[in-house]
Structure formats: C-alpha cells, structure tokens
Amino acid sequence: MKLIPYSDLKDFVARLFIQMGASPINAQQGAEVLLSADLRGVDSHGIARLEGYVRLKELGRIDLLAEPEIVHETPSTATMDGKSGLGLMIAPVAMRLAIKKAEQCGTGWVAVSNSSHFGIAGYHAMMALPHDMIGIAMTNASALVAPTFSRERLLGTNPISMAIPAGEEPPFVADFATTTASNGKLELLQRSGQQTPSGWVQDETGIACTDPDILKKGGALLPLGSDKERSSHKGYMLGSMVDILSGILSGANYGPWVPPFPAYVPMPQNMPGKGIGHFFGAMRIDAFRKAQDFKYEMDNWIRRFRTADAISGKEVVIPGDPEREMEKERRMRGIHIDNQFLAIMRRLADQYQINFFE
Question: Are 41 and 323 in contact (CB under 8 A)?
Fold first, then answer.
C-alpha cells in the first residue's frame, strides 16, 4: 500500500493517455474524470479501471483521438456520436453542450452513442453546479444484471447522478448504480478474499448467493432492492429507464447488446446500435424561479434533513456529504493505492516508457 498525492497520480494517468495516443488536453480531462472517483471514495471506478482502458485501446475498441460529432440537433437537444472515443473524454464534451443549450433555452439535453465507460456519473452531473444549474448524468453498461425473476443478464449497473446547487450549504449530489452493488465492488471483494453481503448477487439458476466470483460462473448482479419482497422491481425499472434514455434514444446499444468493459469478453452478436450510450441534462434554475430563492430553500431543506432525529449512534447525511469529506481528505493527504495496482501501474509505466513514482 502506498499513499500517492493526487497531483502525482493525475500526472501519471495523463502521461499514460498521451502515450496511448490522446491529445494533451483530452489526456488531462480523462485523468481528471478518472481520478475524481478515487478522490470521492468510489475506488471501484478510478485507478482500478485504468488497466481496463489500456486493454480496450490495445484491442482497437476505443480511439483516444476521437472527437465527438453532433449528428442531430434542436435548440435545446442534441445527439452526439462519440466516434468510439473513451467515455472519460467524450462525456464532458456532451455535458458542456447540454449546459450551453440550457443557457440559451432554459434546459439542455444531450444523448450520446458510440462511446465507452465514462467513469463516475457524478463528475459529469456536477459540471452544471457552477452555472446555477441542476445537472443530470446517466449511462448504460454491459449486461451483468438479471431483471426481477430472470436468470438472464439483460441490464447493466446503469448509474444515475443528479447534482443540485445550494446557497451556503454544499450541493446535493446523488450518484448511484441502479443495482444493489456495482461490479467494481465485487472486484474489490475478490481481491480481499471476502464474500458479498446477501442480496448482491444470484447464481446461474437464480438463487441468491454470496460468491464474489459468481459473474464468472454464469451468475448475475441483482437490481436495487435485491428481490421482489424488497422491491427489486423498482431497481429493475430504474435500470431500464437509464438503458432506454442512454441506449435507444441515442442510437447506442442497449440491454444484452451493450459492449462489455473487460477486453477479454467477446462482443455481443447482432448489436443493434453503436457502442455504449449516455444521457445528460442541464436545467437552469432561473428558468423555473429566481436562483437566489431556490438556493435559500435548498439550504433550508439540507439543514432540516441534517438535523433529523436520528437512530441511536447514527446520523442523517445529505447525498454527496460522504464523498465531499473524502475528497477533502484525499486531496490533502493523498490516495492509497494497494500493492496490486502499484504493480499494474509499474508495468504500464514500463510498457509505455513513462516515469513511475519511485
């Protein structure tokens, strides 16, 4: 385990992306998006994903020189072709376009096809906050999730994020998968040799289990709620909505045809669309009411929920609070990288002839 300053990690990732073919500007953007996950404590989506991106590039499944193209547009909406680019670099372009359209029309909406894994949804949604806008970001993902009562994997973890500005209080930032747990959390359990909590996964017959390697054996992740008695149908519906907005609306793949993240997994046959799909929204607050009044009431909302009468030994937190505190600490102290990832980073440094930290 090694504690590495954020600036050093970002520099390493950016230099790696440049050596892989990205422009310096896109490399910096991609590194910032990737490491926002580590900063905010979402360790399954940061450095843990780096080797996966490298493998996808080596197989020719992503193009780090890609520049997204608008293929359909109205004053308040657009559809973009990501040109097989890395989602870490494509998604911010799309979100900036949504913000620009919101500035002109009150709201802006952008659907993206032909992209790839875009990191944490929260980064993109939070881009709207400095503009006094509410930001929305979502993406579909490869099929690892069984709908309620299904043995088949037909949906991805399909995350949703919404970022809402406040006044004196920090913003409200919700960022969550539509499954009980993300695949990245399974991978972290595999590395530590731990079992999953109950309700995360099922085996190939549809029986709940606690094996973190079950996806390799034909099993599946479970929708948010885990089973019908705990309202898994609601998680199934949420994941489906993300899939439809991100995939079908944009012209990307959807359902079982979304390209897998692991490079060693074969691509689905007869794919109906192009790449992975994303969906972004920006809503100008003053398109609905005075921004100052809204933010005053958001402060009131946040303070009231923070002071809720809590269960003994617990406290009620606002979505985004834990991640914000983690980011503050990790920007100051650095980010812990375990020995397995350090070894991977050393190998990538040697392979792409860039300096490592030691």
Answer: yes
